[in-house]
């Protein structure tokens, strides 16, 4: 095990020892925005592999590997969040886990498994990590920030023995060593406190908030909207009615005092405008429902403007939308 300053540094270390400018990384589409930042800093090219409700699609992975090979290159690794994926919330099924590992093994492709949410399962136990199935060729990254405290930046890497020393040297060059204070605090917590009960409490709270978000979406969202139904983690991925742009709609949403992350942030090429990530971890259920009500109202206004003005009147619609965004907001009671 290599101890790191959170999961983000763990991913950065893997990128530092494996990636050169111009290298190819395969990643789910959409994928974690922080990972895209790491790969961009390494000047790597990200090739997205599509997902569906059961996680990464194995046939699409095979196709992506073949297309990269036809271009005369070879992908360095597959970066994946197979359990309660960020941002989509979906989980790779047991059957697909084996298929993905088989495909990567045949192609000689390393797997970087990012698992910050695996312990936040609401509906039964989460599938076993990829690393538990194939120790060789799988790097496992995780963190305490989702289960202990976000400010305690302590994570870890489980890696094949041959590269552990390289990871340690790369980490020493960056930070000398992770915080001894943070490590001691977590060690004390794990050895003296009922952390399993605390984790159970987190799961119950997040399950209630997940259920509140899904119920509000079903009750309030305009026709044509769809969303994932995660069995754990922190996120729901929503697909907007045709023609709506989550990034363009953001100013009106902020004016209504409700926020989301536009889907464009989760793709290397900036696509995904018709999607948004919703986070249910912080607000209590009643505020979640109010937030969805406001968001649905903004979307209804956008749809109405499109219907009235059409494509030819797009600029006028935008001006009207901005005027609505500038109107005073009554706020929450």
UniProtKB/TrEMBL annotation:
Its cofactor is pyridoxal 5'-phosphate. Signal peptide: none annotated. Residues 2-295 form the Aminotransferase class I/classII large domain. It comes from the Bacteria. Keywords: Aminotransferase, Pyridoxal phosphate, Transferase. GO terms for molecular function: pyridoxal phosphate binding; transaminase activity. GO terms for biological process: alpha-amino acid metabolic process. Belongs to the class-I pyridoxal-phosphate-dependent aminotransferase family. Homodimer. This is Aminotransferase class I/classII large domain-containing protein.
